[in-house]
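Ligand: zinc ion. Inputs:
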Amino acid sequence: MTFIYCRHCDWGQDDFYDWRLWKRYSYNPVTKILGYIKEYARPRFIKFDPGFRGGGRFHSWDVMLFSIVRALREWYHMKWPTYRKWRKAYKSGKATCPTCGRTDGFTED
Ligand SMILES: [Zn+2]
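Predicted complex:
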């Protein structure tokens, strides 16, 4: 798991995606969404702590829909979806922060 952040502002993005779908644990929006469907398709109420939408009881389909929309939003906002694209942009000096425009503030974590 590798995230990148900008040290000069609050920009950051989701973990890099791995599109090798034949791998058992490839991380990308499709596997994330399939995971949410598998986890929340059975209708029931689930209790969450305040880390999820302020906490409380939510219907599993509400959680599923929220999680899918969030995954799609993260996908849409990915500046460099794969580690390879990120390294290529960084090495060529073309990696600029989408929020503050700086090129020298990235941290890989
Ligand atoms: Zn920045």
